[in-house]
Amino acid sequence: PHFLEIPFYCVPQSSQSKSKVCANVFCGAGRECAVTEKGEPSCLCIEQCKPHKRPVCGSNGKTYRNHCELHRDACLTGLKVQVAHDGHCEEKKLEKVTNSPIVCYLTDRNELRSRVIEWLQSEAEPEGWFSKGSNFSDVLLKYFQNYDNGDAQLDSTEFLKFIQHNDTAINVTSPYAEEENNRLLRSLCVDALIELSDENADWKLSFDEFLNCLRPGFNPPERKCALEDETYEDGAETQMECNRCVCACGNWVCTAVICDGSNKLPTLEEMEGNDQEMTEEEWTRRVAELNKHQVGSECNVRNHHVLLKGHYFGCDGMCIFPNIPC
Q1: Residue-level pLDDT at 210
Q2: In angstroms, rounded to a whole number, what is the distance separating the alpha carbons of residues 322 and 298?
Q3: Residue 232, Cβ density class (10 Å: 0-12 exposed, 13-18 middle, ≥19 buried)
Q4: 15-86: CATH class
């Protein structure tokens, strides 16, 4: 007997249904028709573009492999991206980088702390036959009460006055020649000291917090800075447009120079009554997203500080720590 072989081809039902359901459906650039579980057509972002290479520059300044990749990216991000021109985008020339900001490094903070402790220890007196004497805690309590304004807490201004009581303690070693910059450096280091033991993050120290900050046996932690899931050592630098940022005591401190008209910082009048942080888009244009793991607080307009994601910009254009009046 002879048998006739007849080939059979199996066509997936999904392919048939997709071609039938999507036959009269038109999806915009960067999208393609797909069939939902209910068997209905739906326009989704293209899963994968063809690999042909024909570079194109997007209106966002990004170069794409081809037109399909551009429209797919616009679909995935939800942003409006148009074709600026064929070919690669021109590299933007970086604007001149400014000088580094004035910062209090860990070594500056620890040096100031050591000098204050030595000064306080020198004033402690052992108990004698005719004198009660005073220990380290007694001496510290005396100064706390002298500089406290009556609220049982020391803020940065009061802490700075306490530091300035001793000439040796205030001479923090720094590369800054101008006295004005040295005063700012001392203020920055005072805030760094407050941050060490400020358990409730109110930028004020109770006596217990004050004592913990300056306790001789306490070893201050060496905090690092976070940026895009990476950590950086104290003194590390990064460039944000024409500004420079430095890692100091676990915080990114940046200059705040206007690079061009598009990223002009808000004025104090614009910030008045607005205690919210800036949007992600505004922040990206100015200093970029730093301090992801650092916690900021509200803007203090009275002291001419502008808050940008944990950064305080002073009236001199420098990004500084909180609670430092101009």
Answers
A1: 93
A2: 9
A3: middle
A4: alpha beta
**Distance (Å, whole) CA 146 – CA 125:** 19
Number of H helices, E strands in the chain: 10, 15
State the pLDDT at residue 170.
62
Q: Give 216's contacts (C-beta < 8 A, 6+ positions apart).
A: 117, 121, 136
Q: Which of 248, 203, 191, 253 is CA-nearest to residue 223? A: 248
Per CATH, 15-86 and 106-214 having the same topology is answered: no
Helix axes 179-197, 106-123, angle to 10 degrees: 80
pLDDT in tens, 160-195: 999 888 766 666 545 444 555 667 778 888 999 999
Instruction: Give the span between the Cα atoms of 85 and 96, in whole angstroms.
Output: 28
Distances (CA, A) of 96 to 3, 244, 258: 84, 10, 11
The whole model's pTM is what?
0.52
Q: Is the pLDDT of residue 321 over 50?
A: no
pLDDT at 6 over 60: no
State residue 85's pLDDT score. Answer: 92
Q: Could you please report the per-residue DSSP string of 204-244?
A: EE-HHHHHHHH-TT-------EEETTEEE-TT-EEEETTEE
Q: Exposed (0-12), middle (13-18) or buried (19+): which is 82, by Cβ within 10 Å? A: exposed
Instruction: Write down the CATH superfamily of domain 106-214.
Output: EF-hand (1.10.238.10)
Each domain of the chain, given as residue ranges in start order, spans 15-86, 106-214, 225-320
Asked which of 63-77, 111-125, 160-174, 212-226 is least confident by mean pLDDT, the reply is 160-174
